[in-house]
Amino acid sequence: MEPLSNKRKVLESKPLNLLERAYLPAIAKGLSITIKHFFKKPVTISYPEEKREFSENFRGMHSLKRDENGKERCTACGLCALSCPAEAITMTAAERQKGEEHLYREEKYAAVYEINMLRCIFCGLCEEACPKEAIYLDGDIVPSDYLRKDFIYGKDKLVEAPLNQ
Amino acid sequence: MEVTDILIKFTLIVIIFAISLVVAMYSTYAERKLAAFFQDRVGPNRAGPWGILQPLADGGKMFLKEEIIPKNATPFLFIVGPSLAIFTACIGSAVIPWGQQLTIGSTVIDLQVTDINVGILYIFGVVSLGVYGIMIGGWASNNKYSLLGAIRAASQNISYEISMGLSIIALIMVTGTMSLGDIASQQHGFWADGWFSWNFFKQPLGFLLFIVCAFAETNRSPFDLPECETELVGGYHTEYSSMKLGFYLFAEYINMFISSAVMATLYFGGYNYPFMDLVSSAAGTNVAAILGVVLLFGKIFGFIFFFMWIRWTIPRFRYDQLMDLGWKTLIPLAIANIIITGLWMTFIRG
After folding, report:
1. Any chain A CB within 8 A of the CB of B37?
2. Tell me, what's the pLDDT at B322?
3. Helix or strand holding residue A115 (H, E)
4. Residue B278 CB neighbours (<10 A)
5. A74 neighbors A113 (Cβ within 8 angstroms)
6. Measured between alpha carbons, how far is A31 from B260 in angstroms, rounded to an integer?
7. Is A158 in contact with A120 (CB distance < 8 Å)?
8. Cβ separation A44–B312 shorter than 8 A
9. What is the pLDDT of residue A114?
10. B69 close to B75: Cβ distance less than 8 angstroms
11. Alpha carbons within 13 A on the beta-carbon side of B195
12. Which of this chain's residues are annotated to bind [4Fe-4S] cluster 1 (chain A) (predicted)?
């Protein structure tokens, strides 16, 4: 058969010679390898104190964005929920009442917006589907918890903090 | 024996006992730390600065853990096992010469608890008793895996004790004595009879055989088959919990310390170091003796480091390979070493 690459190496098993059977040279070689590592710098990152920098396209926890006036961008169109392959997003839409114009950007908004973090696979399709640039996966790692119900994140955890007055 | 003699011996025993325990304690810490360094990690660093209180934390945890004795185990033997293991590990230190004599006023303090003239045989006797601890513990657990581990330990120890004994015979032929004190003092100086004075240079093959057997006797990797987790769950200590398990693990570290001390004494000059006489004439015999003790401990720690270095390098043997190595390689080599030593002593040294 034609080799696919030039990386193929034919293995042959021949009986060990005396030096190899004596086993000691191999041990010495192994010891020299481990002692080299003994003097290397540890690669450990002491996690709680020290955090590893994520790459720029890291996808972490979701956040629902506000616009430049501090209004919520989300209009509860449902495209994110529709695009979600894991079906982790649910929402309930509501109509904006009088006096709430400073809170929501358009007449329709998400009264309830929930992401089940146990189902989310952090694929980023919601981010891509959103026509209003309202959802981004730009947060940290989702923290651990003890109960399954605590992994359903509502608007209290998802919406960005309001702008400073 | 006078009262002061008894007091001195008693203090010495207590000090040596305490030292072996502390060394064993910190060997567990060193083991974890070295393992980390060999694997590019940091290792324990939470308890105290650099984690140096880790052994205390481990000990406290061991004592506070729930103690379980299996329902169908033999309770008496179940407790005797670990006790025997740690007891036999500790008493080996009695015949090791830790240093030369100290002179305080008119009292001469021998830094060796007792210099019996069959020192090596005593060590061998104690070491072979150690397997009873494992055997009884494994048997009393009433667990097939424990029993298998114990049987492995017994057969392994017996097999390697033969080649260990044979490798020592060549050494005894060279030194002409079985007293560890005499063997240590014979290696005094730097150069004697056209040789470096340490026995290692006269018996390199013997030392190699001895150190391989010492690994097997202390059940250290790559010969840690009695406790291999993948095949036997935990081996002979599967059923043990809390401090009884702690004693087994502790006994292994004390054994390692004692066998390092024996190796340093037999082959690496014990407390002797080159130009010892110059030091003792310049700074007094006491200073020279204390420096000797310090250097002996340096050698011992070197061996302990080597034990751990090997552990994190070489994978575990398969059981039949272990037996092959013991019976088909080490014993013939040890016998060849005896013959070569005999020929050398008869025809060359004269």
Report:
1. yes
2. 86
3. strand A108-116
4. 11
5. yes
6. 19
7. no
8. no
9. 92
10. yes
11. 14
12. 74, 77, 80, 130
pLDDT score for A85: 92
Q: Which residues contact B286 (CB under 8 A, 6 or more apart)?
A: B102, B103, B104
Tokens 């980023």 sit on residue: A124
**A2: pLDDT strictly greater than 80:** no
Would you list the domain boundaries of chain A? Answer: 61-158
Query: Kindly report the CA angle at B104 between B119 and B287, in degrees rounded to 5?
Result: 75
Pull the structure tokens for residue A14: 């021949």
Tokens 């002409």 — which residue?
B176
pTM of the model: 0.79
pLDDT band at A3 (very low <50, low <70, confident <90, very high): confident
Q: Which residues of chain B have pLDDT under 50?
A: none
DSSP letter (8 states) at residue B270:
T
Q: Which of B36, B42, B309 sits opposite A34 (nearest CB)?
A: B309
* Inter-chain residue contact B41 with A37, CB threshold 8 Å: no
Q: What ipTM, to 2 d.p.?
A: 0.74
- Portion of chain A with pLDDT greater than 70, in percent: 98
What token pair was written down for A43? 């690669």
User: Residue A164's pLDDT is what?
Assistant: 65
CA-nearest of B76, B65, B69, B84 to B239 is: B69
Give the E-state strand segments of chain B in sequence order.
Answer: 102-104, 107-109, 191-192, 195-196
pLDDT band per the 50, 70, 90 thresholds, residue A6: confident
The C-alpha atoms of residue B149 and residue B131 are separated, in whole angstroms, by 11
Residue of B nearest to A34 (CA): B38
Contact A42 B41 (CB under 8 A): yes
So what's the pLDDT on residue A165? 55
- Looking up tokens 């004693």 gives B247
Probe site for chain B from A21, A33, A36, A37 (most B CB atoms < 10 A): A37
Q: One-letter amino acid identity for B3?
A: V
CA-nearest of B96, B84, B169, B181 to B128 is: B84
User: Does the domain spanning A61-158 belong to CATH 3.40.50.150?
Assistant: no
Residues B167-203 as b/e (b if ≥16 CB within 10 A, e otherwise) read bbbbbbbbbeebbbbebbbbbbbeeeeeeebbbbebb
Q: What is the residue extent of each domain of chain B?
A: 73-100+111-349
